[in-house]
Amino acid sequence: MAKIAITVVVNGQPTIVEANPEAQLRTVIPIALEQTGNTGQPPENWELRDAAGMELDVAKKIEDFQFPADVRLFLNLKAGVGG
Amino acid sequence: MSTQFTDPYVSTTKFDREVNEYRVLSREYERRGWFLVEAQFPFIFAVMAACNIKPSPLVLGVLLDYSNYDTLPPSVRLVDPFSREPFTGSQLPTQLLRGLPMQQMQLPGLPPNAGLQFRQAQPLMQFHHPDDIPFLCIAGVKEYHEHPGHSGDSWELHRSSGAGRLVRILEVIHRYGVAPIQDFNVTFRFEVGLQFGEPPT
């Protein structure tokens, strides 16, 4: 199946990830981090949200989200442990 | 403002990158209620509105100081969106509460799994006295890394992860401080007193 392009905004920096629609959404995270040079924290320390701010289930297949062609997802570092 | 000891070219270049990347997506952020009001090195001033309720209140301002970035992380203060004065602990419109995982307490005499379930919330804004100026207690914030309680979690451990980047910090403040606002909390207070007539002569 043809790959699809997903724009992922990593801490405010956009990058385009070529993704396999049959793969889990989590597969775009390490690619987006590598393309933007964010190598300091492992992928599990990041969270992926849509434009409305809703956290996405990264275990779901990409094709299940039925993203529009101009989709833009937001990948941000989790807040971590405060206090 | 801190004394600039990092090569100013490095700090201003990285500062400009933060601002420029923000501006590329500024319409997206405006839909969330974020507005970048002013950006002049080393300061960035942004305000956040709770746009999911009407009329949408301007909840807070965020003042970031990117002096010495990224030798040091940015300083972050929640401020009054109009006067830009930092909120004290007692003035904070939100403490940025983060829900902790559900905890279960087994009570004696009750069958297993029939105990109490409770969930606590942790404030990400920390202060010791209500008159203190609170700090955002997450890695990537200067005040966090300067706190003696966090001497084991140095900025160097987080520097390459983008923990101090503008959008990331605004995202945390919005997620825990503004996005959870669901409605206005209106309190009516009735007072009952004694009403006297003409004073007797």
How would you describe the overall organization of this protein?
- The complex is a heterodimer of chains A (83) and B (201).
- With 83 residues, chain A is α+β, with helices and mostly antiparallel strands.
- Helix content of chain A is 16%, strand content 29%.
- Chain A is built from two helices and four strands, in the order ββαβαβ.
- Chain A has helices at residues 28-36, 62-65, and strands spanning 4-10, 13-19, 46-49, 72-77.
- Chain A has a four-stranded mixed beta sheet with strand order 2-1-4-3, covered by helices on one side.
- In chain A, β1 and β2 (13-19) form a beta hairpin.
- The longest helix of chain A has 9 residues, at 28-36.
- Chain A starts with a strand and ends in a 6-residue tail after the last strand.
- In chain A, 30% of the residues are buried.
- Chain B is of the alpha+beta class and 201 residues long.
- Chain B has one domain (8-178).
- Chain B has helices at 8-24, 26-32, 142-146, 166-178; strands spanning 34-40, 43-49, 58-65, 75-79, 97-99, 103-105, 116-118, 121-123, 125-126, 135-136.
- The longest helix of chain B is centred in the first third of the chain and has 17 residues, at 8-24.
- The radius of gyration of chain B is 22 Å and the shape is globular.
- Chains A and B meet through β4 of A and α1, α2 and α4 of B.
| Bulk shape of chain B | globular
Characterize the biggest β-sheet of chain B: 4 strands, antiparallel
- Order of strands side by side in the largest beta sheet of chain B? 1-2-3-4
The total domain count of chain B is 1
